[in-house]
Design a protein that fits this description.
Order of helices and strands: HEEEEEEEHH
Distance between the termini: 35 Å
Largest sheet: 5 strands, mixed, barrel
Strand order of the largest sheet: 1-2-4-5-6
Helix content: 25-40%
Number of strands: 7
């Protein structure tokens, strides 16, 4: 499958990005969010909240090793330097937590501070309307409308909108 090859390539690339620290006593996480076309986030953080396929998943320093699938949703990062929460819209992928390093490989990602709130609100409203108008008999159209809605909702929430 092409997706599996893309994920394998991204995973290999993430291993080469930056210097991996082995300091067990560090008080911050090293967080990297990598999409196929760019690195969206590569900075230290105090805390991360991920949209896993089983619900919200909080990560702090000293977390046990973990590999998890991510759903389309909003990732929140509390940056180490300023204690503010940053929002990043994720479009599904995987996260690995190991030795205070969080590597997130996603199909797409966009920082909330780079998203225009008005455009995101419009896209969200359009996706919501389309989702309600899809025929119950057209399974493929339902799936596509649901995915478009989840993407639009994640972008809108990351930009600061409330649903």
């Amino acid at each position: 499958m092409a997706i599996t090859k893309d994920i394998d390539a991204l995973w290999a690339a993430s291993r080469r990005v930056g210097q991996r620290t082995k300091d067990k006593g560090q008080m911050t996480l090293t967080v990297r969010v990598i999409s196929p076309d760019k690195t969206v986030w590569d900075a230290p953080a105090e805390e991360v909240v991920l949209p896993s396929t089983t619900g919200q998943l909080g990560i702090l320093t000293g977390h046990a090793p973990l590999l998890t699938a991510l759903d389309t949703g909003v990732m929140r990062v509390r940056a180490a330097k300023n204690q503010n929460w940053e929002a990043i819209a994720l479009l599904g992928g995987f996260a690995e937590v190991e030795e205070n390093e969080v590597t997130i490989l996603v199909n797409g990602a966009e920082r909330g501070d780079k998203i225009n709130l008005d455009e995101a609100r419009t896209a969200y409203n359009q996706a919501e309307a389309r989702l309600t108008q899809v025929s119950a008999d057209d399974r493929q159209a339902q799936i596509q409308a649901n995915q478009a809605f989840k993407r639009a909702r994640a972008r809108f929430q990351a930009a600061g909108g409330s649903v």
